[in-house]
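Tip: read the tokens left to right.
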């Protein structure tokens, strides 16, 4: 029995001499996630750790500069060029474009401030202490004034 076999990357079709055919489909290989690295993903907020050149393409023409401490959002990449991993960054101000990952970090999120009620309790306690101290000072002044009057 003669058969013809047609193959593609994940499909095999065998056509039998009788006119019947067999179809085998292998699952497609998993695609690597090309929108992130171990440190960053598209959409992440970043801050620069040093002054950088901003480029039109990965390792391409310089279109501007950004200073250390500049914030931005990763909108494209990563892309590898010239030994660096590059990200397309929409900076909050100034030139936007491609910057090497080596000069980026995620911003540190500050701890949240105490709740207003806790802060209010602390302020009330402080006010009571100030009032008590003020009363003590007034009593001391009266005692000193009385003592001075007696000594004359």
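Filled-in amino acids:
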């Amino acid at each position: 029995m003669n058969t013809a076999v047609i193959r593609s990357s994940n499909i095999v079709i065998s056509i039998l001499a009788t006119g019947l055919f067999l179809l085998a489909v292998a699952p497609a290989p998993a695609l690597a996630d090309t929108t992130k690295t171990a440190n960053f993903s598209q959409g992440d907020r970043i801050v620069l750790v040093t002054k950088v050149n901003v480029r039109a393409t990965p390792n391409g023409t310089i279109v501007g500069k950004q200073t250390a401490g500049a914030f931005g959002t990763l909108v494209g990449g990563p892309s590898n060029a010239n030994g660096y991993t590059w990200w397309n960054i929409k900076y909050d101000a100034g030139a936007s474009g491609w910057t090497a990952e080596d000069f980026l970090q995620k911003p540190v999120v500050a701890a949240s401030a105490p709740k207003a009620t806790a802060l209010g309790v602390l302020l009330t306690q402080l006010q009571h202490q100030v009032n008590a101290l003020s009363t003590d000072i007034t009593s001391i002044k009266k005692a000193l004034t009385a003592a001075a009057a007696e000594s004359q």
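The chain has one helix and ten strands. The two ends are 137 Å apart (CA to CA).
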